[in-house]
Amino acid sequence: MSSNSSSQSPVKTTGLHIGDAAPGVAKVDPIIIADNVTRTFGGLKAVDVEHVEIPRGAITALIGPNGAGKTTLFNLLTGFDKPDTGTWTFDGTRLNGIPAFRVARMGQVRTFQLTKALGLLTVLENMKLGAQKQTGENVFSSLLKPLWRKQEVEIEERAMEILARFKLDTKKDDFAASLSGGQRKLLEMARALMSSPKLVMLDEPMAGVNPALTQSLLDHILNLKTEGMSVLFVEHDMHMVRHIADWVIVMAEGRIVAEGDPETVMQDAAVIDAYLGSHQDVDLGVVTGRISGEKTAEVEDLLAEIDAEVGLTDSSAYIADTPTDDTAKEEDTK
Amino acid sequence: MDWEAILSNTASWLISPETIAYALAALGLAVHFGYGGLLNFGMAGFMALGAYGYAISILTFGLPWWAGILVGCLASVVFAFILGIPTLRLRADYLAIVTIAAAEIVRLLFTTQVFDAVTNSADGLGNYHEGFRAANPFPEGTYGFGPWTYNANGWWVRIFGIGLLIIAALLVWLLMRSPWGRVLKGIREDEDAVRALGKNVFAYKMQALIIGGIFGALGGVVFALPSAVVPSVYVTSLTFFIWTILLLGGAATVFGPILGAVIFWVIMGFLSNVLPAMASSGLLPFMSTTQAATLRFIFVGLALMLIVIFRPQGILGNKKELTFVKQ
Ligand SMILES: Nc1ncnc2c1ncn2[C@@H]1O[C@H](COP(=O)(O)OP(=O)(O)OP(=O)(O)O)[C@@H](O)[C@H]1O
Ligand SMILES: [Mg+2]
């Protein structure tokens, strides 16, 4: 990792799909293939995905308005929730009905929208927990330290290495609960990397992270690709999506409404309609306050519209009222 | 008031079989709740299974005393499975509800007339001491010093119980310093996060429930060793005494439950001596000596409330942990 990689534009992976970029388009080398995945909550169809493929070795962004079903799709794909219908494979293995912990063992790890740092464990313990195939995690062999001492040392070395990359090494003996919100996001991501996953699924990794830290988070995500991992992440900030994503999948009301590389997807009529309103020229990073930029007339315009929209009972929420965006809003008022 | 007798009686509680039994059960609860976050409100059930398993094995099936202890432990393992399989996949509160009800069912099954031939229903069981006492390695006679003067059988029960307690504490210490303990503590904090890291959360919770349950059963055995098995002991309030002890000493510690049990019984012993003495010497007007003796249970309730409010991490708990309020 180098801090100046951020100043340059990251190298985009291209040629991921076969044929025209349309919802459900086939990929050259998919790591996840899902078919007919549906999930309803009462009368609400939270997820209704006919076909989707996630490319391997690339960074894929999953975007869409609040309540589009992104987190629900994450939960389904990782075994944290059960779908009503549907089949999907990860790396060629069928995953339906496979419990979440097995999915993780196969190399598909995730983080959560609401960060789950294990508060009363130290940062280092959090990290060690991420390592797989630990002899000492068996109830019987745990009693005999000689059986796991060596592995524990190796795990600790690896953990410190990753912590150093995330600039958390000085915090190793602190309780995770004492970390700031952004640091917890970093810890959760670092912890997920302890298992050397094939696919990393990040649910809003930047939410609540200040702009300075956002930059290093972006670098970390780009780094994952360099190390040969595939990344699928949910993000509301279009600036970031445009910056790092090789591929963008757009969800709205449970369906996949558009797919494509970031530049073209942002021009797509369906996306503009579902997500960006008529303000596709506006950098939403500025609107949400994450990116300091000039508040143009268009930005003010959109903010006013958002306020009006929130006032109404309309269910189609806007980007700015994501609950996790509170910190971003605070930034704005400073 | 005879202060010498009161203090001597109080001091004897330091290593009484009751103290040791409660310490064992509290240690089991530390594994359940302190380290694993499992809300087990059925410790009395585990203890009853240990005590009855021991007594019935000897009286009805003629097994040797040590086999009786094994049967008691085995019964608690079965009980842990029955409780755990349906509830451990659900939210933590469900385990609390199910355990409190299941422990009552266990007690009622031992009390009912239906199994009178085996359980002697409400009268309980006694006279199963022969085997255990025959195995006593200590010489005949009464020895010791001061308040801690017992006969050979008294010493045998205490030393045996303390031995079990040391082994149990050592096991907990070994488990909790290991990666296994790390996973369990992780589950206590957030089981979904641990699941996302590829750990079989259900299996860990089941293992914790079993290990703590066995300690509870051993507590029941030690409780039964010197005297008799009385069904009215294994009521829900027993569970809450164990909880008081755990919270007093420190839930996520190895020595907390032991210290808690000692403090609990010493104070209980002191109050049960001093309150009736005060009543009979007219210091507690409007109260008979029996009424005064039950006053101590009110103090236990008060103590539990005060601990939870003012020192929720217990005496030995890590003060740093308290800085962070859990969600
Ligand atoms: N457990 C649940 N019970 C009932 N409804 C749910 C549940 N989980 C999600 N939903 C509903 O499903 C829809 C999709 O929710 P989901 O969390 O997947 O949205 P999202 O795309 O992640 O949104 P956000 O960007 O705000 O995180 C929402 O309308 C939500 O209310
Ligand atoms: Mg979401």
UniProtKB/TrEMBL annotation, chain A:
A Pfam entry, by short name: BCA_ABC_TP_C
Keyword set includes Nucleotide-binding: yes
InterPro entries to which the protein is assigned, alphabetical: AAA+_ATPase, ABC_AA/LPS_Transport, ABC_transporter-like_ATP-bd, ABC_transporter-like_CS, BCA_ABC_TP_C, P-loop_NTPase
Keyword annotations: ATP-binding, Nucleotide-binding, Transport
Taxonomy of the source species: Bacteria, Bacillati, Actinomycetota, Actinomycetes, Micrococcales
Region (Disordered): 315-334
Gene Ontology molecular function: any one: ATP binding
Protein name: Amino acid/amide ABC transporter ATP-binding protein 1, HAAT family
Start and end residues of each ABC transporter domain: 32-278
Keyword Transport: yes
CC per GO annotation: plasma membrane
PANTHER family xrefs: CONSERVED COMPONENT OF ABC TRANSPORTER FOR NATURAL AMINO ACIDS, CONSERVED COMPONENT OF ABC TRANSPORTER FOR NATURAL AMINO ACIDS-RELATED
CDD domains attached to this UniProt entry: ABC_Mj1267_LivG_branched
Signal peptide: none
Alphabetical list of SUPFAM superfamilies matching this protein: P-loop containing nucleoside triphosphate hydrolases
TrEMBL record, chain B:
Protein location: Cell membrane
Keyword flag DNA-binding: no
Keywords: Cell membrane, Membrane, Transmembrane, Transmembrane helix
A GO molecular-function descriptor: branched-chain amino acid transmembrane transporter activity
Transmembrane region(s): 12-31, 38-59, 65-85, 92-110, 155-176, 208-228, 234-255, 262-287, 293-310
Stretches assigned to coiled coil: none
Key word Cell membrane present: yes
Membrane topology: Multi-pass membrane protein
One CC-aspect GO term: plasma membrane
Any Pfam family matching the protein: BPD_transp_2
Database matches in PANTHER family: HIGH-AFFINITY BRANCHED-CHAIN AMINO ACID TRANSPORT PROTEIN BRAE (PTHR30482:SF10), HIGH-AFFINITY BRANCHED-CHAIN AMINO ACID TRANSPORT SYSTEM PERMEASE (PTHR30482)
Protein name listed in UniProt: Amino acid/amide ABC transporter membrane protein 2, HAAT family
Provenance organism: Mycetocola miduiensis
